[in-house]
Amino acid sequence: MHEYKDVLNHDVSLCQPVAVGFQIKAQFGASHLNFSSSEFLATLFNVQFVSRYTSTMNSTITATDAVSYLLKGFGRLFYIVNPKSTSPGTLQEVPDYIAEAVPFFVMTIVMEFLTLLFSNKGESLKKKRTWYANRFSINDAVGSIGAGMLQQLSQFFIYNLTLASYLYVYNNFRLVDLDPKNIYVWITGFLIVDLGYYTFHRGAHEINLFWATHVVHHSSEYYNQTTALRQSIFQSYCSWIFDLPAALFLPPSLFATHKQFNTLFQYWIHTEMIGNLGPLEYVINTPSAHRVHHGRNPYCIDKNYAGTLIIWDILFGTFDLERVPPAVKAGSSDVEPVAYGLTHPINTFDPFTIQFHHLRHVLTTCWATSGFSNKLKVLFYGPGWHEGTPRTGLLEEIPLIAKDVPPEKHDPTVPKAVNIYVVSHFALLIVINSILLDMKHVLEFKYASIASAFVFWTLTSFGWIFDHKKFAVEREFLRTMIVSVVLSWAKLNNLTSDVANYLIAFHVASGLWLLATQRNYTHIKGKKD
Ligand SMILES: [Zn+2]
Ligand SMILES: [Zn+2]
C-alpha cells in the first residue's frame, strides 16, 4: 500500500474548509526552488508572464475543446464529474480543482451581475429598502472576494493540518485498504466527506470558538455569488477533526478529491436568482435551502448545514424550507423573506475586522466571565449562550425581522467615480493575487510575506474608503505613491519590463486624481452612515 509521506508540499490546501495548524510554515519544502528578488519582480511584472499566457491562448483551440472545457468546468460546480477520471491513485495526482474553477467563479459572478442589472430595469441593484432590490453592492463584493483572496494567500503561511492529521490517522490507524479506483469506494467517499462537512458545519455554528472563524462567511448582508468566496483564514483549524473518521478507511487521494468537489458544489447555491427546486429541495443542498442557512430571521437560525446533500439535515432534524412561495402560499402570513447576515451586523468592510471581530469578542468575553466552567462554556457552547440559557442559547433572544421592509444594510454612499477607482485597482489586485498563487511552489517565504502584506494593505485601504474612515483617501493616495516609487526603483534597476511603466502611470494618475477630487467624499449629500 502506498505510504503517503511527502504530503505537505502537495497542494490540497485550497480545500475548504482548508485545514491548517497554528504553526507558521517558516520555510517551504527544501525541494522548492527559490526566486531571487529580481526574478520575483521580473515574474510579477514582466513579459515572460504575459507571453506564457498568450502562448497558451495562441495555440489552436477548437470549438469542441472550448465546449468540453466549459461543460467540464461548469459540471464540476455541480458535482457532475466522471468517477473514473476523478479517482486518482495517489495524493500527488490530485489536481487543484479549486484553482481550475477560478475562471468559472468569474464567469458566474459576471453572469449573475448582468442578470441582476437587466432584470426589472435594474431594480435588483437599486439601493432601496425593499425585499427584492439591493442584491449586489460593490463594497460588499470587494469585501467578500477580498476575504477569499486572503484565505487563499494564507496557504503560504499556515500548516495544512487537515491533510497532516488525515494522513497520520490513515497511515497509523486505518482499518482497511480500499482501492481508490473502485466506484463503490468513490461513492462512499462522496458520502463520508459530505457527512463530515455536515458535522463540521453544525459544530461551526454551535461551538462559539469555531463560530469565531465561520462567522466570516456569514458576515455579508447580501446573498450572491461573491458571498460564497467570503471565507475565513482560520476555519480549517476547527474543521480538520471532523474529517478524521473518514481517515480510518478512505484513501487520502479520494478524500482530497471529494473535499474539493464538496467545496465547489457549495459555490453555485449562493444566489437569489434560482427559486424553489421542487422535489430536489429534499435531496440536495439548493440556493433556497442555503438562503435559509444565511438568514438571521429566528426561523433560519441553526438550519440547513448541508454541503451537498440536504438529507443529513432532514435526518438530524435541522432542515427547514424557505418561507416563500411555493413552499408557503402566496399572501399567507407565514411568508417571511430571508434577511441575510449576522444578528449583530459588523457594519464594516475592513478585512481585519471581517476576519477577526468575533474571535476578539469571544476571547474578551471569556476573560471577563467568572468561573472556570463558565469560561469553558463561553468557548464551547453556542454563540447565543449566556448564564441561564440552554447550550445553544434561546431563539426568543434573536431579534425579529419586520416582514414588510428588510433591515437596512451597511452601505455608506460612495461616489460612482470612487467605485470605479476601487474596482480598477481591485481588478489589478486580483491579477497580482493569481500570479502569486501560481508561484506558490517556488516563491521564497520572504517574498510571499511581502506580497501578501501588500494585498492585505490594499484590501484594508479599500475597506476604509467604503467605510468613510478618516483620512481613507489620503492613505490610499500614499499607497499609490509608494507602489509607484517601488516600481520606478525596480524599473531603474532593470528588474521589470515595460509593463511597469503602465502600472506607474496608472498609480500616479489615479492616486493624484483621488487626492485632488475626492478628499471630501465622505461628506457628500445622502450619506447614510
Ligand atoms: Zn454556516
Ligand atoms: Zn454559504
Automatic annotation (TrEMBL):
GO molecular function terms noted in the UniProt entry: glyceryl-ether monooxygenase activity; iron ion binding
Keywords, in A-Z order: Endoplasmic reticulum, Iron, Lipid metabolism, Membrane, Oxidoreductase, Transmembrane, Transmembrane helix
Top-level class of the enzyme under EC nomenclature: oxidoreductase
Main location: endoplasmic reticulum
Listed EC numbers: 1.14.16.5
Top-level taxon of origin: Eukaryota
Compartments, record wording: Endoplasmic reticulum membrane
Family: Belongs to the sterol desaturase family. TMEM195 subfamily.
Membrane-spanning segments: 97-119, 183-200, 418-435, 447-465
A Pfam family reported for this protein in Swiss-Prot or TrEMBL: AGMP_C
Catalytic activity: 1-O-(1,2-saturated-alkyl)-sn-glycerol + (6R)-L-erythro-5,6,7,8-tetrahydrobiopterin + O2 = a 1-(1-hydroxyalkyl)-sn-glycerol + (6R)-L-erythro-6,7-dihydrobiopterin + H2O
InterPro entries according to UniProt: AGMP_C, Fatty_acid_hydroxylase, Sterol_desaturase/TMEM195
Membrane topology: Multi-pass membrane protein
Annotated ranges, domain Alkylglycerol monooxygenase C-terminal: 418-492
Keyword Oxidoreductase in annotation: yes
Cofactor(s) needed: Fe cation
Domain Fatty acid hydroxylase: 186-318
Cellular component GO terms, alphabetical: endoplasmic reticulum membrane
Gene Ontology biological-process annotations: lipid biosynthetic process; membrane lipid metabolic process
Official protein name in the record: Alkylglycerol monooxygenase
